[in-house]
Amino acid sequence: MEKKSYPLSKVYQLIETGPVVLVTTSSKGQANVMALAWHTMMDFEPPVIGMVLGEQSLSFQTLKATGECVINIPTVELARKVVGCGNCSGRTIDKFRKFGLTPVKAAKVKPPLVAECYASLECKVIDARLAAKYNFFILQVLKAWVDPSVKEARTIHHRGKADFMVAGRTITVPSKMK
């Protein structure tokens, strides 16, 4: 197979990081929610996640100040609301109200879970040294929640601009070759 050059500006489309999530933060009793696609698992037990937030966002400022958030994982049914949360600022509107999302009290952190998401991960920042240069926070998951009625979550994955891919069927690949 012969390969051809590919634009560096489109590399993101080749190596997207995982499902788009809704990150909730809270400061002075005011919760905010933002859409985020730049995250990665870094360790298994305890679960550690790396996450990049734009420094101009209210969520960046709040996470930096409070050191805690909730990563909520939506399914395809919430795609329009997720995109809506990603296209406006919590500085000027209440996104929970605008997009009909339900905040639910978390067990270990102040930011709320999003009831409509099939999974939620309560997190604390354990390392913010890369936030000043790369907007990169390292989080430890303190508590995880999942909706047991969702058997196979059809998550959405950002492919650039307005394009998303929906997670498909699960396959099992044997780890040992014959």
Features:
alpha+beta, 178 residues, two-stranded antiparallel sheet, seven-stranded antiparallel β-sheet, Pnp Oxidase, Chain A, globular
Q: How large is the count of helical segments?
A: 5
Please report which band the strand proportion falls in: under 5%, 5-15%, 15-25%, 25-35%, 35-45% or over 45%: 35-45%
Give the overall form. Answer: globular
- Average per-residue pLDDT, rounded, comes to 93
According to CATH, the fold-level topology is Pnp Oxidase, Chain A
- What distance separates the N and C termini? 27 Å
Q: How many domains would you count in the coordinates?
A: 1
CATH architecture: Roll
| SSE pattern, N- to C-terminal | HEEEEHEHHEEEHEEE
What is the helical fraction, as a range of percent?
10-25%
Adjacency order of strands in the biggest sheet: 2-1-5-8-9-4-3
Q: Main β-sheet, in a few words?
A: 7 strands, antiparallel
Radius of gyration, CA atoms, in whole angstroms: 17 Å
Low-confidence stretches: none
CATH superfamily descriptor: Electron Transport, Fmn-binding Protein, Chain A
Name of the CATH class? Mainly Beta
Which structural category fits the helices and strands? alpha+beta
